[in-house]
Amino acid sequence: MPASSPQTAPPQVTPPRATRLQHWALAALVAGAVAIAFSPIFVRLSEVGPTATGFYRAILAVPPLWLWMRLKPETPPSPATGARLPMALILLPGLLFAGDLFFWHLSIKYTSVANATLLANFSPVVVALGAWLVLGERLNRLFLFAMAVSICGALMLVGSSLQLGGGNVLGDMFGFITACFYGLYMIAVAKLRGSHGTQALMVWSSLVTGLALLPAALLMGEGLLPATGQGWLTLFALAWISHALGQGLIAFALGHLPASFSSLVVLVQPVMSALFGWLWLGEGLTMLQIAGGLTVLLGIYLARRAQLL
Question: Which of 20, 23, 225, 260 would you call most buried, defined as having the most Cβ atoms within 10 angstroms of its Cβ?
Answer without folding.
Answer: 260
